[in-house]
Amino acid sequence: MTAKEIYQHEQQGKILRRIDRLPTDIVIPLFSEWAEENRYLPPGVSEYPGKFTFDIAPQIREILDSLHPDSGINDVTLMKSRQSTGTVGAGENFIGAAIANKTGSVLCLTSNKGVAKIRSSSAIDVMIDNAGLSELLKPMSSRMKRKSADTSYYKEFSGGIKLLMTSYGSIGDIKSNTFGNIFLDEWDEAPPELKDQGDIEGVILGSTMTVRGYRVLRVSTPSRMETSRIYKAFLMGDQRYYYVPCPICGEMQILELKGQDKDYGLTFTMEKGKRNNSKVLIPETVRYICRHCKKSFMESKKAEMLLAGEWKPTANPVDKTRRSYYISGLMSPEMFLSWERICQQFINTGFGEDLLLFKDFTINYLGKPWASVQKNIEWQELRDRSEDYVYGIPPEFKKPTEGELYAGPLIITGGVDVHKDRLEMHIIGVGIGLEKWSIDYKIFYGDPSNINDVSWSNLDSWVCTHTYKIAGKENYISRVAIDTGYQPEGEKGLSQFSAKAHIVYEFTGRRPSVYIAIKGVAEGKVLELIKEARVHGSVLKKRYDVDVSIIKEIIMSNIDLTGGPGAIHLPRYTQDAKGSKKRIPDDHYRQFLSERYQEKAPKKFGWVKIYTRNEVWDTFIYAMAAAEFLGLSGWTNEEWMEYYFNLNNN
Questions:
Q1: Are residues 204 and 230 in the same domain?
Q2: Helix (H, G, I), strand (E, B) or coil at 569
Q3: pTM for the model
Q4: What is the signed CA dihedral for 204, 185, 152, 102, rounded to 10 degrees?
């Protein structure tokens, strides 16, 4: 034998002897078994301390076990509502079981590093201390005593297992590491792409390229349907829903809200409230009507139903190693989120009429993506159905008889857009059910970069002295919202105005009882349509951030209405300088429909201008923001009629 052959023979012998010494009885327990045997939630960490059990949320068990090395599944998605125990039951247990059973290093990504740090100290460190994992932790380097292997973001365990917790914005942390287990928490918070690196998902999954049996868990509440990452991942899986048996007839079904188009689901009864004839929930009437036997039962049956439930796939994915699950708030443990609270929140949305609250309800309570409610209408149709009244002269309505509601505008608001050479103002009348009438449109020319310019003085004079006949009485404009997006020439952004007065801030600060300064903000950045924000370094101490995207949705969801709550009315005529009536130019109606919600770039959706000029559209939105500032969206019919009678008696 040659020297090379002798060496190869010796190495083969060593390898065979090592194989013979390997244990043959290693069994990795189901991850759900590990969790119930080892996890303990101490007081102060959970409102329900004690040994962890899946009896509270049995629907989580299969999701966690799908991440076991022997499951044959590589990719698991959980699209959920809030308070669904998905993060604790699936995410945290996935991390703990992977470390305990040495199935590979773990990467946990979340929205930002602040959240990652809080999650590390409040959840992961507690799990390590109370699940027998602390003995596996390597506290520091044996070579460099000050080099800790147990920090908020990074931990090392025996067996070469690493845990890295970071954010989607700090993706560079993972590039030089390999991970066999990845937990993507609040996956919808991940940005669409990374600068010069493409889609963030590809970068993340790149850390598993050398791992054959990798596991990925995505957990998140969804967001807008067109852009939701978790919804897209759910559709790419086998789309599993949890079926539970009716406690009366035993037939299996998915828990869902009762709608107008179905005679089953979660329902309730209301009664007349003590104030303004409002309707309030009767808690003891909250019940579920079976889809099959049509008999009803109370929430006290939910726990036993969930224990007897089972997941069923409803799709055949191309990739058979992908599973996806959906959990709604109706499945949440009763001590976390009750059916009563879900019903009350649905009532708070006005049964879907309040678009902002209904969007929050759909995402956070039902765990479903938000689908934009928009209707297609051409500007010609808007022009052709314009109404027979003139700008500057609101339409007249007859006085209501007993029991009737007044059918016309009652409160006047305005919205101003600032340009280099002019101010444009849309004036609207708002009535019962937020029905809206466009009643005037004014342009004040000049040099708005100068606070003492005639454009500002003419605007102020009109707002403070001009009246419109509403419900038989002359009325002033109640409130005017002015957009602060305007920047005097030479300025680069609003941040530069922190040390000196912005021109709009200075003007609105002079009459804060009449004007408000507003700023449009990105969708989802505020939880209300309009929210107070502090201003520094200006005569004005506060402005108002406005979710203009949801206002645009409200407009487009009602654009086809010709009357009643939410409807929008536009005039057919305007007046020339001599007071003669003439048709409003087509351009005016084009501007009102100047934007459309669509794909702006690959995987990026938003409002896109489809017509060059959009001042009529923008100023109408600002006038609606002024109405929201006054709280008109929360007025009941009785409050509107009380206002009407007070108006006529003064």
A1: yes
A2: strand
A3: 0.75
A4: -70
